[in-house]
Every structure is written in structure tokens, then in C-alpha cells.
Specification:
By secondary structure, the protein is of the alpha+beta class. The protein is built from four helices and six strands, in the order H-E-E-E-E-H-E-E-H-H. The protein has helices at 3-29, 78-87, 110-144, 149-182, and strands spanning 44-47, 50-53, 58-64, 67-72, 95-96, 101-104. Strands 3-4-6-5 form a four-stranded antiparallel beta sheet, covered by helices on one side. A hairpin with a 4-residue loop joins strand 5 (95-96) and strand 6. Helix 1 (3-29) packs antiparallel against helix 3 (110-144) and helix 3 (110-144) runs antiparallel to helix 4 (149-182). It is elongated, with a radius of gyration of 22 Å. The model has no long low-confidence stretch (mean pLDDT 88).
């Protein structure tokens, strides 16, 4: 086509990629029965007066499918970490043995699984909105260009193909996550 259109397509593709990356990040924080360090990704600990992500002040690991262990690099942070996990309202009950914090991840109830599946669906809708916004912006940019109507039409069709492809990817990722959540 032409450089201006290529730039618009590239910008739209980048915005749509960002929507997918954000979706993947959000889906990682939705637990699916198995213990995972990413379940605690959004926990912020009061580290000497500054809200700090848990992963920056402690080693978070999963020794088995039902347990998460958190070993702060400074022992005096055990209570702060424990408090942050409770404040994050994740439904976990951390136990402190003086060296590490142990979280036993309870099995999900059917009701909770359905709730988490709905949450995953909601995240997919947010991602699709991001993709559609990128399409709208790109189409608006195309209309402002000084090119023939035929080229504009071709460019808009390309944007629509991108949108359809990214929407399909979103649906696939959420379907995988829902299957993971619903698997007992």
C-alpha cells in the first residue's frame, strides 16, 4: 500500500497485541485450582513505607499443587507480607512458621469455579474492547489520509481482518483458561 497506511496498520497491530498481553497477565492472576506464584502477583507489601510488589521482597514458590511458600529476604518482613496477603482479599489464610509463610490453596468449589470462569469472560470482553478501540482509531486515521477511496477500503478491510484474528485469539485463550478453571 503506502507508508502512511503501513504505519496505521502497524500502530493498530501494536495496540491489539497490547490488549492480548494485558489479557494474558490478567488471566494468570485468576487461579485455576493449582497453586501458582502468579496468584500473588497483585499483592503489594508495605516495605519501609512504600507499596512494593511481593515478588520484589520475597521468593514465592510452589512446592506442590496445593501449597505456596513465601520466603521474605528479610525476616522482619514476615508480618508485613502476611498482612498484605490478608488485605489483598484473595481468600487465602497464610500461616507463618517464623521462617516462611505457607499458604494452603483450598480446592475450588463448583460455585467458585463458575465465578472464576465469569471473571475470565469479563477479562476477555475488556480485551475485545481494547481491540475494537484500536480498530476504530485506525479506521479514523485511514479516513484522514490523502489516498484514493479504493486504497482506504483495502486498508479498512485489512484492519477488520486484524480485528477478527485478534478476537479469535482472545476467544481461544479464554476457552483454554475456562477449561483449566472447570477441570476438577
Amino acid at each position: 500500500m503506502n507508508e502512511e497506511i503501513d504505519f496505521i496498520l502497524g500502530t493498530a497491530k501494536e495496540a491489539m497485541n497490547n490488549a492480548i498481553v494485558h489479557l494474558e497477565k490478567e488471566l494468570r492472576t485468576i487461579r485455576a485450582g493449582k497453586a501458582s506464584p502468579s496468584m500473588l502477583a497483585n499483592v503489594q507489601v508495605n516495605y519501609y513505607g512504600a507499596a512494593t510488589p511481593l515478588g520484589q521482597i520475597a521468593n514465592v514458590s510452589t512446592p506442590d499443587a496445593r501449597t505456596i511458600t513465601i520466603q521474605p529476604w528479610e525476616k522482619n518482613m514476615l508480618q508485613e507480607v502476611e498482612k498484605a496477603i490478608m488485605n489483598a482479599n484473595l481468600g487465602f489464610n497464610p500461616m507463618n512458621n517464623g521462617d516462611v509463610i505457607i499458604i494452603n490453596v483450598p480446592a475450588l468449589t463448583e460455585e467458585r469455579r463458575k465465578e472464576l470462569a465469569k471473571q475470565a469472560k469479563a477479562e476477555s470482553e475488556h480485551a475485545k474492547v481494547g481491540v475494537r478501540n484500536a480498530r476504530k482509531e485506525a479506521n479514523n486515521d485511514i479516513k484522514k489520509t490523502d489516498i484514493s477511496d479504493d486504497l482506504k477500503k483495502i486498508a479498512e478491510e485489512s484492519i477488520q481482518k486484524l480485528t477478527d484474528n485478534y478476537s479469535k485469539v482472545i476467544d481461544e485463550k479464554v476457552a483454554i483458561k475456562e477449561k483449566e478453571i472447570m477441570t476438577v
